[in-house]
Amino acid sequence: MASSFASSARFSKTQSGVCYSVSFTPRVTVRCCETAKEPPRPKSKLQVGSPIIIVEAPKVIKTAASMPCLRANSGLVKPGDVGRIVSRKPKDFWAVRLSIGTYLLDGKYFKALELEE
């Protein structure tokens, strides 16, 4: 864990009738080191091609087309819908192929579907 503290200082200096303005920002960084080993994080079961199930309906949905469209979810995506992950996007967003189309969904709205063989 690291955090920064910053404050600004501004100084003005007049030399031969010309005013010079100088500002600087001193920075202090604090780091916290753990001496004990942290347990390994479990790897996400989600990957491209994984089946998923919707656990909560999002309020708005965004299509995963080249020209995305953002619209209110009027019952298109419901809890219990099943789909498959098409691609991974930044910040825990996933392109998910559902029966009604491909949409960009946040990872909090679905979970990996456990398939028994």
List the keywords.
single chain; 117 residues; mainly beta; SH3 type barrels; seven-stranded antiparallel beta sheet; two-stranded antiparallel sheet; 11 strands; Chlororespiratory reduction 42; CRR42-like
Can I get a quick summary?
With 117 residues, the chain is an all-beta fold. 0% of the residues lie in helices and 50% in strands. It has no helices and 11 strands.
Describe the overall structure.
The model has no long low-confidence stretch (mean pLDDT 76). The strands form three sheets. This protein has a seven-stranded antiparallel sheet with strand order 7-6-10-9-8-5-11, with no helix packed on it. Helix content is 0%, strand content 50%. It starts with a strand and ends in a 5-residue tail after the last strand. It has strands at residues 2-6, 9-15, 18-24, 27-31, 51-54, 60-63, 70-72, 82-89, 93-98, 101-106, 110-112. A hairpin with a 2-residue loop joins strand 9 (93-98) and strand 10. The chain has no helices and eleven strands. It is elongated and about 80 Å long. With 117 residues, it is mostly beta strands. The chain has a domain at 50-112: Roll (SH3 type barrels). This is Chlororespiratory reduction 42.
Radius of gyration: 25 Å
* Helix-strand makeup class: mainly beta
The total count of helices amounts to 0
Let me know the largest β-sheet. Answer: 7 strands, antiparallel
Low-confidence stretches: none
* End-to-end separation: 43 Å
Apparent shape: elongated
Report the helical percentage: under 10%
Number of strands: 11
Relative strand content: over 45%
Average predicted local confidence, pLDDT: 76
Q: Architecture of the domain at 50-112, CATH level 2? A: Roll
Instruction: Look up the CATH topology of the domain at 50-112.
Output: SH3 type barrels
Spell the H/E element sequence.
Answer: EEEEEEEEEEE
- According to CATH, what is the class of the domain at 50-112? Mainly Beta
Q: List the strand order in the largest sheet.
A: 7-6-10-9-8-5-11
Protein name: Chlororespiratory reduction 42
GO biological process, one term: NADH dehydrogenase complex (plastoquinone) assembly
